[in-house]
Design the sequence.
C-alpha cells in the first residue's frame, strides 16, 4: 500500500510538471503546489481531479468563526480566510453571513467546513472567489448571492450586477464538496484557467434569470480548465444552458462529468463549445431528466466560432467519450447510442473525428454506478446536507422527488 501511494504521488507530480509546460493554472501556482505532499486524499470520499487537495492539511492551525459579521476583525470568516498560514476553519455560530463585498480567497492551504454547526452557514449578497491559490477545500457551505434580491426585490447590493455563487480562477487543487450554490444572478459557478478541480455532491440550481435581460442567455456552470471533475451533483431549474465547457486559445482543456443528475433543465443541459485548443471530455453514467421545453437539448456540440464548423483541421485535437448516459426519451431497458442525443452543427466528418470509443484519461477514485441509480443516490446526500438541509434545499429536493 505504501509503495502504491508513493507511485501515485510520483505520477501526480509528473503530471503537474507536464501541466506547467502545457497550460491550466499559472505556472507559479502549479510549481508551489508541486512542492507539497500529494500522498493523501483531501478526506474520505473525495474523488476526481481535486481529490488530492490538502486544504489546511493535518498541521493546519484550527480557526473558529465566532461571529456572522462580515469584517476583518478576529473571529469573522473574512478574517480567518485572510490569514497567511495553513488553517482549518470551523464555526461556533450558525446562520447567514451577508457580505459587504465579495469574499476573496488569496491565501493558500485552507479548509472551510460548516458540517457541524447547528443551522449551517449561508453566504449571501456576494461571491466566493478563489483566486490564484492552491489547496482550498470548501465543505457544506450554502452560497446564495441573490438572496435579498429574490426575497425583497432590487437592493443596492445586487442592482445591475451579475453575482456568481462561486468563482475559481487561476488556481489548483480545489475541492468543493457538499455545497449548495443557488440564486446566483447570472452564472452560478465559473472555473477559469485552473487545474485539478473537483465539484462533488453539490446542488447547483435556480439562477435568478428574471433579474437579467431576456436576450442574455447564461450557463449555470462555465469552465475552460484542465482536469475538472463534476461528480454526483444535482443541476436543476435553469432556463438556459446547464454546463458550458469551452476550449479557447491553445491551452489543453480536460473535464469529466460522472453520475450527475441533470433535471428540470431549459434550452441545453450540457454544451461543449469547441475551439482550436486540444481538449478531452468524459461524459458517462449521467442522468438527464424532465426537460422544461419541448425542444430542450441534452447535449450540444458547437464551435466557438461558426467558421470552425466546416474546418476539420481546427478541431483535430478534440476528443469526446460519451457512454451509458440516460436521456429522457429512452426507457430504462432499451439500447441507446449516446451520440444519437447530441445536437451539433459540425459536419459529419468532424463529428466522427471527435468521437472516442474508449476513456481518454484516468480520473482519480471515481467508481461510477449506473445512471439508473443516480436519483436515489444523489438526492439522498447532495448539497449542504450536514448538519441538516435548510428549507430552500429541501424544497428543491422535494420538487424533484415528487416529479419522479
Sequence:
Amino acid at each position: 500500500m505504501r509503495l502504491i501511494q508513493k507511485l501515485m504521488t510520483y505520477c501526480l507530480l509528473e503530471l503537474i510538471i507536464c501541466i506547467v509546460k502545457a497550460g491550466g493554472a499559472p505556472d507559479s501556482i502549479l510549481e508551489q503546489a508541486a512542492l507539497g505532499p500529494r500522498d493523501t486524499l483531501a478526506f474520505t470520499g473525495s474523488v476526481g481531479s481535486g481529490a488530492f487537495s490538502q486544504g489546511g492539511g493535518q498541521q493546519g492551525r484550527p480557526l473558529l468563526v465566532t461571529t456572522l459579521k462580515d469584517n476583518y476583525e478576529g473571529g469573522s470568516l473574512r478574517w480567518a480566510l485572510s490569514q497567511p498560514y495553513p488553517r482549518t476553519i470551523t464555526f461556533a455560530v450558525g446562520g447567514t453571513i451577508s457580505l459587504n463585498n465579495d469574499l476573496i480567497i488569496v491565501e493558500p492551504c485552507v479548509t472551510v467546513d460548516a458540517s457541524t454547526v447547528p443551522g449551517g452557514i449561508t453566504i449571501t449578497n456576494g461571491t466566493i472567489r478563489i483566486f490564484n491559490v492552491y489547496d482550498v477545500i470548501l465543505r457544506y457551505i450554502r452560497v446564495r448571492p441573490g438572496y435579498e434580491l429574490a426575497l425583497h426585490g432590487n437592493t443596492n447590493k445586487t442592482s445591475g450586477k451579475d453575482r456568481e455563487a462561486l468563482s475559481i480562477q487561476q488556481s489548483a487543487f480545489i475541492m468543493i464538496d457538499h455545497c449548495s450554490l443557488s440564486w446566483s444572478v447570472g452564472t452560478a459557478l465559473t472555473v477559469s484557467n485552473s487545474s485539478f478541480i473537483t465539484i462533488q455532491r453539490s446542488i447547483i440550481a435556480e439562477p435568478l434569470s428574471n433579474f437579467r435581460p431576456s436576450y442574455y442567455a447564461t450557463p449555470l456552470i462555465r469552465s475552460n480548465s484542465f482536469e475538472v471533475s463534476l461528480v454526483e451533483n444535482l443541476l436543476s431549474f435553469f432556463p438556459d444552458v446547464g454546463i458550458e465547457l469551452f476550449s479557447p486559445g491553445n491551452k489543453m482543456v480536460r473535464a469529466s462529468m460522472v453520475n450527475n443528475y441533470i433535471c428540470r433543465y431549459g434550452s441545453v443541459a450540457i454544451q461543449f463549445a469547441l475551439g482550436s485548443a486540444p481538449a478531452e471530455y468524459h461524459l458517462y453514467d449521467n442522468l438527464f431528466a424532465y426537460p422544461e421545453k419541448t425542444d430542450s437539448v441534452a447535449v450540444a456540440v458547437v464551435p466557438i466560432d461558426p467558421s470552425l464548423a466546416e474546418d476539420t483541421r481546427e478541431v483535430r485535437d478534440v476528443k469526446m467519450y460519451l457512454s451509458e448516459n440516460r436521456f429522457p426519451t429512452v426507457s430504462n431497458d432499451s439500447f441507446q447510442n449516446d451520440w444519437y442525443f447530441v445536437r451539433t452543427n459540425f459536419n459529419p466528418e468532424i463529428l466522427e473525428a471527435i468521437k472516442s470509443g474508449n476513456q481518454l484519461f484516468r480520473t482519480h477514485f471515481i467508481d461510477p454506478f449506473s445512471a439508473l441509480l443516480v436519483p436515489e443516490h444523489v438526492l439522498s446526500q447532495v448539497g449542504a446536507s450536514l448538519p441538516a438541509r435548510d428549507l430552500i434545499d429541501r424544497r428543491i429536493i422535494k420538487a424533484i422527488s415528487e416529479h419522479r
Remarks:
- The first strand starts at residue 61 and ends at 65.
- Residues 2-22 form the longest helix (21 residues).
- The two ends are 43 Å apart (CA to CA).
- Residues 94 and 118 are 6 Å apart (CA to CA).
